[in-house]
Design brief:
Blueprint: H1 5-24, H2 27-49, H3 55-71, E1 77-82, E2 87-89, E3 92-93, H4 98-109, E4 112-118, H5 123-138, H6 146-153, E5 158-162, H7 163-171, H8 176-181, H9 203-206, H10 214-219, H11 225-236, H12 245-255, H13 262-274, H14 277-293, H15 299-317, H16 321-337, H17 343-351, H18 359-367, H19 374-377, H20 380-384, H21 392-400, H22 405-418, H23 423-427, H24 434-444, H25 452-459, H26 465-478, H27 480-491, H28 496-508, H29 512-522, H30 525-528, H31 533-545, H32 552-556, H33 564-574, H34 584-590, H35 593-596, H36 601-608, H37 616-623, H38 637-650, H39 656-666, H40 671-684
Antiparallel strand pairs: 1-2, 1-4, 2-3, 4-5
Helix pairs in contact: 1-11, 2-3, 2-4, 2-5, 3-5, 5-6, 14-16, 15-16, 16-17, 18-21, 21-24, 22-24, 24-26, 25-26, 26-27, 26-28, 27-28, 28-31, 31-33, 33-36, 34-37, 38-40
Length: about 675
């Protein structure tokens, strides 16, 4: 006698009824099952987001396999029940959120009541399972029946219970005791003591062991691991002699109940595989528009609306932005045409756009945005323009969450092209998240709107310094006159990042006449002393590296500064200039022997590197005063300064001006000078 699969499954139900308390009270298992369900839902929703060939699907299946292997490390199999309330593990409802309840409704509606995964489930089996779910998820029709496809695959390590098997099994259940358990009564799958009876703990058993660990569960006297594996194995081996004709009547009954529009959706999907989006959408919309215009107020018209909204959403999630836009705009046009004659029906059409402000739907869309083709990504802003302005902050936050920088920039550029300036967008320049502020500014900068400049100026005072920096940069793109007052305030900000950015922007401006007063104020000694030490270095170096020749005198005057640190920083910055010509008058004044004698050793050595041939003609006439100046017994600073000075000159001793100055020094009559020159001469020559 052939044992049917449903009878094998009934045996395992009886086994679980007696032992489920030790399994389903395992808190760790319940948590792991919840995680698996979340991944299960993620994969199924993935088919609504991506074409079946998208690599995202492969990633989801990988994650599912890893999680399943973790669970099956401790137990031989895991069973997930499916009710109208959601996924269940025994009598535990696995609450995993609204999105997963949507997924479980799809599975329940298609006849699946329980699914099992056994240790040893392979990646290939998971691929095949989700390929089946893909066919049923996207477009339901008689060719894509979940029960039939599962039966056809005859999995080795994945088992399932379907509604058809439960109904058929219930026909043969006559024993009242069995009916009290009644796991096969469809109407009791979610309510009452029926299916929920599996795994219940009676009052006496509840007082005994905790049942919280897989170790306790396996070692208890009435639960042997070998029996568990033996019974669970029965679930997975479907008998190949099961005759599909036994269920045909039930299947035909279910298939006849599909709502109007499912076949249209299937045909639409098939057409998309063979033709361009634009071709299919235009052809389909023509027919859909005609039906909508002539079916207002009827049940068929309402079902057509359900079909229409499903189609534009699927187009969008499949990456056909242009097709979705065309769908939405066509429906909007139809709604406007029917506004006067059929206002209620017109409103129903408008209600089909509710997902345009549904954050969960929009989040799903952003989940796939990095896989959208480049040509479709270029018009994504036109789609975003259809989203109500009140969702602008959510939209910009989701744009920030895009991982790929190139994709993020492409989305911003498209949005800047299509999104209008609204009060909601301007309000986002005051948002607490500077990245939202940055995106809002980026969307506005190409527009010609009188409200933009005041908004940008106000953003310069934003609490977040990065927002202030972004606003300053954008302000400069409008006009120097607009930017300078704000830049000047920012240059004296208490935040270093803001100061640095503002000073750099000021120095980058070409209008030296306008910016020199600001730089002059900035380089005043008392203002420099308020800055951090290395910040002064940065400013001095920017003036040199940007070759701001009109600002060199502002830097050069610090060679005569009374503050040693500022003086030294000026010397070190000027050393990096390509020529000393622009600083000659300041170097000559600083090279006076009395000034040299006041310098500290490190400063004196650094300064003497500024003594170069291009300034010798100006330098030497002024330096002759050292011929008559000598040190004293208690003041060695003058001879030290002289020696460093002449060392620098001897480096260029072949220069005509340097040679002439050395000769004059030897004939000066100053014993100290002659002694120093001869000492250096002997060393070098």
């Amino acid at each position: 006698m052939v044992v049917k699969a449903s009878e094998k499954k009934r045996a395992i139900f009886d086994f679980f009824k007696d032992n489920a308390d030790k399994l389903f009270n395992d808190n760790d298992l319940v948590k792991s099952a919840k995680d698996l369900v979340a991944l299960f839902g993620k994969v199924i929703r993935g088919y609504r987001l991506y074409p079946r060939t998208n690599p995202a699907f492969s990633r989801f299946a990988d994650q599912f396999k890893v999680k399943l292997d973790e669970i099956l490390t401790d137990i031989p199999s895991i069973s997930l029940r499916i009710s109208t309330k959601g996924f269940m593990l025994g009598n535990h409802m696995l609450d995993t959120g609204e999105k997963d309840r949507e997924v479980v409704f799809f599975l329940y509606n298609d006849g699946l009541r329980e699914i099992f995964f056994q240790k040893g489930t392979t990646r290939e089996e998971i691929n095949q399972l989700f390929d089946i779910l893909a066919q049923c998820t996207l477009f339901a029709n008689e060719d894509y029946d979940l029960s039939t496809l599962l039966w056809d695959h005859n999995f080795t390590n994945i088992g399932y219970i379907t509604e058809d098997e439960l109904i058929k099994q219930n026909i043969s259940v006559t024993n009242d005791t069995d009916k009290a358990f009644s796991p096969f009564l469809v109407e009791e799958l979610s309510y009452g003591p029926g299916f929920d009876g599996i795994g219940e703990v009676d009052s006496e058993d509840a007082k005994s062991g905790s049942g919280n660990s897989t170790y306790d569960m396996a070692k208890s006297p009435d639960f042997e691991t070998t029996d568990f594996e033996k019974y669970t194995e029965l679930i997975f081996k479907e008998n190949i002699e099961i005759n599909f004709d036994e269920r045909k009547e039930l299947l035909d009954k279910r298939l006849s109940n599909y709502i109007v529009g499912k076949m249209e959706m299937f045909k639409f999907d098939e057409a998309l595989k063979r033709n361009s989006d634009a071709f299919v959408v235009n052809r389909f919309l023509k027919e859909l528009s005609s039906r909508l215009m002539n079916s207002q107020g009827t049940r068929a018209g309402k079902e057509l609306l359900d079909t229409a909204v499903s189609l534009w959403e699927k187009l969008l999630l499949f990456g056909s932005i242009s097709g979705a836009i065309l769908f939405i705009k066509t429906l909007e046009t139809i709604a406007e045409q029917l506004q006067t004659t059929h206002p209620e029906y017109s409103q129903k059409i408008k209600d089909t756009f509710s997902d345009l402000e549904n954050e969960e739907f929009l989040s799903d869309f952003f989940f796939s945005v990095e896989d959208i083709p480049e040509e479709e990504l270029a018009i994504i802003g036109e789609f975003f323009a259809l989203i109500p302005p009140k969702k602008m902050d959510f939209l910009l936050l989701k744009i920030n969450s895009i991982d790929s920088k190139d994709t993020r920039i492409a989305v911003i550029q498209s949005c800047a092209k299509y999104l209008p300036i609204t009060d909601e967008l301007i309000a986002l320049t005051r948002h607490s998240d500077w990245k939202v502020v940055r995106n809002a500014l980026a969307l506005m900068k190409e527009k010609k709107d009188p409200r933009i400049l005041p908004a940008i100026r106000a953003t310069v005072s934003h609490p977040q310094k990065q927002a202030r920096i972004e606003a300053l940069a954008l302000l400069m793109e409008f006009s120097v006159e607009e930017a300078l007052p704000a830049l000047e305030r920012a240059a004296f900000s208490s935040a270093r990042d803001v100061r640095s950015a503002a000073i750099q922007k000021i120095l980058e401006l070409k209008d030296n006449i306008s910016i020199k007063p600001i730089v002059n104020r900035l380089l005043l000694a008392h203002n420099l002393k308020k800055l951090e030490s290395d910040e002064i270095d940065e400013i001095f170096q920017m003036i040199i590296s940007m070759r701001k020749y009109d600002m060199f005198d502002l830097l050069g005057q610090h060679l005569l500064d009374e503050d040693h640190d500022i003086r030294l920083k000026a010397i070190q910055a000027i050393q990096k200039a390509t020529t000393m010509t622009h600083f000659s008058k300041f170097i000559v004044r600083a090279a006076d022997i009395n000034n040299l004698a006041k310098m500290k050793p490190d400063e004196l050595q650094a300064f003497c590197h500024l003594l170069k041939p291009e300034i010798f003609k100006e330098l030497f006439p002024a330096a002759t005063n050292m011929f008559s100046t000598s040190g004293t017994l208690f003041n060695k600073s003058i001879p030290i300064a002289k020696e460093e000075f002449y060392k620098a000159i001897f480096y260029y001793r072949n220069d005509p001006e340097a040679k002439k100055f050395i000769e004059r020094s030897l004939s000066s009559g100053n014993k100290e000078t002659i002694k120093i020159v001869n000492k250096i001469k002997d060393k070098y020559l």
